[in-house]
What does this fold into?
Amino acid sequence: MMAGRCSTRLLVFCVCAAVFSYISASPEVCTNSLLPGAKGDQGEVGEEGDQGKLGKNGPPGFPGMSGEKGLRGEVGHTGKMGPTGDKGDKGDTGLDGPSGLKGKPGTTCDCGRYRKVVGQLDINTGKLRNAVKFVKNVILGLRETEERYYLLVKEAKKFKEASMNCKLRGGTLAMPKTTNTNRLMADYVSMAGLTRVYIGVHRQSMDTDGTSGYGYADSSPLQGFAAWSQEEELNSRLSPTTNSSCVELLSSGTWGHVECEATMFFMCEFPKSRRRG
It folds into this structure.
């Protein structure tokens, strides 16, 4: 009886050992894992944590698009006055005014020996006054040769008015009677930034053969020199009755016909006074 129980237990033990050994050796048991359960309910929101430390500044972003142009603002306050400009060039001297009224006769003076001295002083004073007037009207900006001064007058006038203006200044319209004088006058015109001026040459009265020639302002004829361009000479021969009776000097040095009623700048000439003795 006892021996039967022992053998039964041994058998059960062997069977259990065999089953355990089989389970341990089976690969399916080693690869099995537990599956997650269903999602639980959302928990309560926790309390707000402490503020963290400031991070480093990030790189600058790309520039944005330009905005629309704003409305024009109101006019600002007037600024301070600027500095005074440079003084301009002195203008040309005006024409002489009319003579004054005759003064009352003076009382008789027994000047005796001083009368001659006073008279000479008056003469010298008059000469000095004319010299000062000449310097003011001519010396500034003039050109000169050995015998004459030349002044370019920047006042637009007709031919007769220009001629009278030169006479009031103590001279005449400039008369280029030589190649050198003509070149000097042309360079004067060019350096002044001009293209043409009146000169003292114009058509004069008819000749015996019925043709009209040109002469200088002092009534002397053109002798040995003339600076007509080829075109001007041809036009003069084809139309000798033209109304262009006056002459202009171009900056190139050539002469041209022009109507006497045209207004333009002109050039005057003044003789140099020669000392006696």
